[in-house]
Amino acid sequence: NAGVTQTPKFQVLKTGQSMTLQCAQDMNHNSMYWYRQDPGMGLRLIYYSASEGTTDKGEVPNGYNVSRLNKREFSLRLESAAPSQTSVYFCASNIGLQYFGPGTRLLVL
Amino acid sequence: SQKIEQNSEALNIQEGKTATLTCNYTNYSPAYLQWYRQDPGRGPVFLLLIRENEKEKRKERLKVTFDTTLKQSLFHITASQPADSATYLCALRDDKIIFGKGTRLHILP
């Protein structure tokens, strides 16, 4: 039982490049979330998926897209990365008690 | 506007003493409030949940109170240890989970 897993752990991109952050959970949770965490800003919700087949915008969705591929997997895509998207990205699952992945550290140059 | 506030300054506590962290919120009526621990380079880990009709919740050396009149939750760690040093986040359930920015706690040996 791995809980919530994220790949990659660390990524460096150039401005304008695209990438997809992967998240998977093996706890059979309906809800999954993507957050970004920046110094002094705390955790901010980017997108969430209340159930398979649905996605909704959170507090800071601009510049991101998501796909809920199935119940287990929820991916976050940056189509054209910008330096302002340099951050630590966390995936989480479950609507109440949230289980977090280990994070992806993204640096956009 | 809606806010969830935690003391942004680090809290230094002598080992063995009780550490008390504060979480205040405005313009929310949360069904429950949660506390998480986050260590550097890791995702948050759930600690305790307290519902609106509960005044106090305990788990080992941890105690959480919830005052819906004051719109405040207090998080106590008794007999604190250096291993308790971490950032502690409060989160409340509105239509989504909303996180505070966290308070860094340092337990000094």
What is this structure's SSE topology?
The complex is a heterodimer of chains A (109) and B (109).
Chain A: E1 4-7, E2 10-13, E3 19-25, E4 32-38, E5 42-49, E6 56-57, E7 65-68, E8 74-78, E9 87-93, E10 99-100, E11 104-108
Parallel strand pairs in A: 2-11
Antiparallel strand pairs in A: 1-3, 3-8, 4-5, 4-9, 5-6, 7-8, 9-10, 9-11
Chain B: E1 3-6, E2 11-14, E3 19-26, E4 32-38, E5 45-51, E6 56-59, E7 62-67, E8 72-77, E9 86-93, E10 97-99, E11 103-108
Parallel strand pairs in B: 2-11
Antiparallel strand pairs in B: 1-3, 3-8, 4-5, 4-9, 6-7, 7-8, 9-10, 9-11
Give a written overview of the molecule:
The complex is a heterodimer of chains A (109) and B (109). Helix content of chain A is 0%, strand content 50%. Chain A has 109 residues and is mainly beta. In chain A, a hairpin with a 3-residue loop joins strand 4 (32-38) and strand 5 (42-49). Chain A is globular and about 35 Å long. In chain B, 0% of the residues lie in helices and 58% in strands. Chain B starts with a strand and ends with a strand. Chain B has 109 residues and is mostly beta strands. Chain B has no helices and eleven strands. The interface between A and B is medium-sized, with 21 and 21 residues.
- Mean pLDDT rating of chain A: 94
Tell me roughly what share of residues is in helical segments of chain A: under 10%
Low-confidence stretches of chain A: none
This entry's quaternary arrangement is heterodimer
Strand content of chain A: over 45%
> Residue-averaged pLDDT of chain B, rounded?
92
**How many β-strand runs of chain A?**
11
Q: What is the tally of helical segments of chain B?
A: 0
Radius of gyration based on Cα positions of chain B: 13 Å
Main beta-sheet strand count, sense and barrel state of chain B: 6 strands, mixed
Shape of chain A: globular
Radius of gyration of chain A: 13 Å
Number of beta strands of chain B = 11
Helix content of chain B: under 10%
Question: What is the count of helical runs of chain A?
Answer: 0
Coarse morphology of chain B: globular
Order of helices and strands of chain B: EEEEEEEEEEE
